[in-house]
Amino acid sequence: LNGTEEFTEILWVRLDADDQDYALTGNWYDPDRGPEDRSHLIWYNNGEDAITLVFRPDGFGGDLFDISEGPSPAVGEWMQVAWTFNGSGDIRLYMNGEKVGSVEVGGRVKELPARYIGDASTDHTPWNGAVHSVFDWTEEKSPEFIENNYENGRE
Fold it and tell me: Which of 10, 60, 87, 126 would be a feasible disulfide site paired with 135, CB 3.0-4.6 Å?
């Protein structure tokens, strides 16, 4: 993604323990590229008991945005986690088909480096559970699309 594109990512995941923080997907630190490439991370936040999205549209050292609202994930149950970017600055986080939060990042998103799935690199504990499916689109999908994906189990 080059910073001007819309995108949507939907993940179907199961959290098997909630005893600490667990990284689900992102690139929070790539030792081959350096900490300046920290861009985004979706993780289980033990302190908030919530799925949390943190995002640095300009990489490490830039502004930090986060969304940590929403229901507590049920341990051992499958859930849908989705996030979208509309190409002009609005990032939305969804859980189980419902928007749980959004943040305005000012219309800018640097090119996202390669990301990890089930982890976020070397400085986070890998996801404790399972990742069933990951779907990516280069457009912002509608809230109705995300809800239908949840209701139908997966597209």
Answer: 10
Number of C-beta neighbours around residue 141 at 10 A: 20
List, in sequence order, every beta strand (DSSP E) within 1-144. Answer: 7-15, 22-27, 40-45, 50-55, 65-67, 78-85, 90-95, 98-104, 116-117, 129-137
Name the pTM for this structure: 0.84
Angstrom distance (rounded) from CA 112 to CA 122: 17
CA distances from 108 to 31, 55, 131 (A): 24, 11, 29
| Cα–Cα distance, 155 to 140 (Å, whole number) | 15
Q: Could you give the CA distance from residue 101 to residue 67 in angstroms, rounded to a whole number?
A: 6
Does the structure show a pLDDT above 50 at 48?
yes
